[in-house]
Amino acid sequence: MPIELESVSFAYKSADGSEIQxxxxxxxxxxxxxxxxIMGHTGCGKTTLIQLMAGLLTPVSGxxxxxxxxxxxRDYDRAKLREAVSLVFQFPEYQLFESTVERDVAFxxxxxxxxxxxxxxxVRWSLEIMxxxxxxxxxxSPLSLSGGEKRRVAxxxxxxxxxxxxxxxxxxxxxxxxxxxxxxxxxxxxxxxxTAVVMVSHNADAISEYCKRVIIFSDGELVTxxxxxxxxxxxxxLEELYLNAGTPRTIGHMLSGHGMEIxxxxxxxxxxxxxxxxKLQNVERTLH
Amino acid sequence: MLIGKFVPINSIIHRLDARMKIVSLxxxxxxxxxxxxxxxxxxxxxVLTVIIWLSKLSLFAVLxxxxxxxxxxxxxxxxxxxxxxxxxPLFSWWIISFSGEGIRQGxxxxxxxxxxxxxxxxxxxxxxxxxxxxxxxxxxxxxxLLRVPVEDVAMIINIAIQFVPTILExxxxxxxxxxxxxxxxxSRKLREKALSFLPLLIPIFISSFRRADELSLAMEARGYRxxxxxxxxxxxxxxxxxVTAVAACFVIxxxxxxx
Amino acid sequence: xNNTVHHNSTVIHGSDISFSYDFDGQLSSALTDIDIEIxxxxxxxxxxxNGSGKSTLAKHFNALLPVQKGKLTVCGIDAKNQSEIWRxxxxxxxxxxxxxxxFVSSVIEEDVAFxxxxxxxxRELIPDMVENALRLVGxxxxxxxxxxxxxxxxxxxVALAGVLALDPDIIVFDEVTAMLDPMGRKEILEEIHxxxxxxxxxxxxxxxxxxxxxxxxxxxxxHNGRVAGFGTPREIFTNTELMQRVGLVSPxxxxxxxxxKAEGICLKSCPLTNEExxxxxxxxx
Lengths: 288, 259, 285
Fold this sequence. Notes:
The structure holds three protein chains of three kinds.
Chain A: E1 3-13, E2 19-30, E3 35-39, H1 46-53, E4 61-66, E5 69-70, H2 78-84, E6 85-88, H3 101-106, H4 116-129, H5 134-137, H6 147-159, E7 165-169, H7 177-192, E8 196-200, H8 204-210, E9 213-218, E10 221-227, H9 228-233, H10 235-240, H11 247-257, H12 269-287
Parallel strand pairs in A: 3-8, 3-9, 6-7, 7-8
Antiparallel strand pairs in A: 1-2, 1-4, 4-5, 9-10
Helix pairs in contact in A: 4-6
Chain B: H1 12-15, H2 18-34, H3 38-55, H4 59-68, H5 70-83, E1 91-93, E2 96-98, H6 100-126, H7 129-139, H8 150-180, H9 190-196, H10 198-221, H11 240-258
Antiparallel strand pairs in B: 1-2
Helix pairs in contact in B: 2-6, 2-7, 2-11, 3-6, 4-6, 5-6, 7-8, 8-10
Chain C: E1 10-23, E2 26-39, E3 43-47, H1 54-61, E4 69-74, E5 77-78, H2 85-91, E6 92-95, H3 108-118, H4 126-136, H5 152-164, E7 170-174, H6 182-199, E8 202-207, E9 218-223, E10 226-231, H7 233-237, H8 240-245, H9 252-262, H10 274-284
Parallel strand pairs in C: 3-8, 3-9, 6-7, 7-8
Antiparallel strand pairs in C: 1-2, 1-4, 4-5, 9-10
Helix pairs in contact in C: 3-4, 3-5, 4-5, 5-6
């Protein structure tokens, strides 16, 4: 069952008391098992949107439904939402606070009714997904880890409730290439096993490579919502919004401009390589 | 926010010498504390209105600490109203006694705290951090006789004030992040309530230390040794405006004390 | 202004530099036997994964970290010489990663003046120097604003102005793009390149983004605290074996060059940027 936003608007008060409209009349439905990328410039309302989805903010108008129920109704059971929808903030490594990694990851299950063994098993499961050896890491202090390790521990803490929806705010910001790829592979695997993933990111390459659907915001309004291939093939529209279409698509577009027709559907590295290869081989064939 | 972030606009209050603003603030505080008559309060409110008007600051910004702490004011009002021991209470039960004097006392305390906050807020909203630092170190100069490193203390105060908004913003973020992980900040039991703040306090602590560490490196990289070895600010002579302002505040203070 | 840049004199010269952090008596090695030579006016990128020792090395250049072993000379000053530290820091400025943690004042002109005041520059001279520095980074008109009201890229430009005000010979940029969005990254990168070209200041840029280093004069590749390679971007990125060993992926044009070669299609020379790639491919077709 999906997360649904029905004509949601949100505004907050600035320091001098004036109202600032952060989101205007947004309707989105995100279904089970989807992999959605959210793009837009800083201040376009992306972060506000995912906080609304996780019930951390209440819309000024419109409603947010989860499994068909309005999460902002007084009698709605928030605990259920917290378990099914995990929101990982930007730089989640800054929220670690327990004395050991094991305790920190288990924090999300603190109020659950599971037995000690079940909790321990869950913690092991989520740390192993994030690439840790449970027995080696469990007793370490989160503060003694490196930046990349801390972030993985923090994400394990979001996985521990086995959420059906995982929402990330800029999860790969500041990571180096290796950690970035490792992270994206893990998330992709989780998605293939059925977890829905929503990822806010500035990284067009990551979105075009991994997401299936992309939603674009500009100044608090939804401007595009569609399959990744469709959205990234329309490079002119992205350029109008000053957004990047990812390196492969950009190169393909530049080549087309220089007389070498590259399909606008070539948005990934492999597709671009194949397109260039077949064009150049054709040229050689006609030459010989 | 309890302490405002400097709003750079051009007003008489902004142009006043920071040292004189601090001295005037102290005179006005003494005036408020010594007030006991209705006319006194009316005069104070008038002075406040004039100051806020002259500062060209938005009323919303100036009053924002009051707005945020309304619950605190209600509590201190009732604390005073109920627990003020009086000879002729209207109503009395156990240690609680309710009297006219108590209510008056409650109003007086709330009024005083409000005025202190508004004046402090106007001061920080209208004075740039470096001006504030220099003014503080200049006013604290006598402490040098006691070997207090006055310039360093002033620099510390300035930086601390500067980081308040950043850290408040960050704590708001961490609070949301921990709520998303299932933290309950609204528990009723005192012990649980205290413990429930650890997921908030520990990350803020760690982050503040990290910030302090990075800032100190950035300061050293730009040649900071200690506050003493820096270009001295001009010994700006007080202008007529500055002197008039202090004199006015002093007169208000004296009148309030003796009437 | 003198536009001829002399690429001959060495401004940073380090040999055999090693450094270990001390965690409660446990030594953890961060740098081992680093040799480095940077010439005046050069744009040198120090590239490596997180934890490869990039920032540790950078903090040696302005003596924020002491030279434990080896020798380091910056602008002719021995970095071990305690009495010269302040002169060294004035000649070798540094901009940091987190734009929010390097401002000492919430008014931009006061912040830019901070360094000048630390060097006890005459009060009368400061306003002009501040104005000049802000103009150099294209932030004139923001004197009275608060850094907190700016975008990430603008904040880093103001931080750069604070360093430029002291007119250093070398500027070290320690992962200044890491916390910015793509627009901010582009903005500050262009600013750094322009500064290097127009003023001839030596630039040392620390980063883990391979794409950001393609326009540098030289790339110093760090891996596990050791120098894994030092050369032009082309020399480094076309060395597939080296890139794989240090766990970095070459820029897309270089990967395409290599993969096309494997298919029997040879471009004349290896492109580094998208523009070069397009040019090379069009030459074939």
